[in-house]
Amino acid sequence: MADDASSNQRSPPKKHSIDTNDNNISRSSRSSVDSQRPKPPPPPPPPPTPMTTTSGIPPPENARRYEDLSRRNLNRLSYRRCFCYFFVALLVLVTLAAVLVGIFFLVFRPHKPMFSVSGVSIAGMNLTSSTSLISPLIKINLRAKDVNTFLGLIYGGGSAVEIFYDAVKLGDGELTPFYQPADKVTETVTTLRGTVIELASSTREDLKEAENKGKVPFDLRVKAPFKFKVSAVTMWRMVVTVDCKVTVDKLTLSATVITENCVTEDIAVL
């Protein structure tokens, strides 16, 4: 027993062996974990240094920018001034025009012209033929009266004259341009033409019946542009609209006007 105890005391302590493979695996796993970790953000850039020289004088780049800004401000101011001048000039012109119009109406007191129909001749409306197509040729003797004492009237182009029977347009034409002195009556002849107009059977029968009775009614509409003239001064352009109710005894060249009534509507400024 003593020998066994002495042998146990003399035997050296056992050493634990380290596995190198396990160490390598742990190192590789650590490196992979480290690579997966997010990288810290880069440091912020340093603040910009002011573009000034050591002597306190701005560099040439700043001087150029200042000049550019100054020029832009001057351009804006000039544009605003031009706009203000234009607006003021326009306001002055509008005011002067309104004053002139007021003076014109107060001094001369213009009146709208009066119209009447003095004669009608009709061709191309043969209602006894077998065809329902007609091509009317109607001449209207139109009298225009200038009731103004000091204002003449200048009738220009762009007028329109139309004639209807029961809302069916039979022809149209234009007034011949003319000048009418103050307080005068002018008679003009206007030719109205209609091309290949097909009448409904009811309208055709109504026309026949009206002609047999000796009373064929027509609607005549006139739209005439004109200008007032005072001595050598011509005023702005206006337009007058006239609505006439005309009744004739027959549909021939020798037709006679039985009744007529023309109403001049208000004058409109063009």
Describe the structure.
The chain has 270 residues and is an alpha+beta fold. It contains four helices and 13 strands. Strands 4, 5, 6, 7, 10, 11, 12 and 13 form an eight-stranded antiparallel β-sheet that branches. The protein has a three-stranded antiparallel β-sheet with strand order 1-3-8, with no helix packed on it. A two-stranded antiparallel sheet has the order 2-9. Strand 5 and strand 6 form a beta hairpin. The longest helix is centred in the first third of the chain and has 49 residues, at 60-108. It is elongated and about 110 Å long. Residues 20-35 have a biased composition (Low complexity). Residues 1-11 have a biased composition (Polar residues). Keywords: Membrane, Transmembrane, Transmembrane helix.
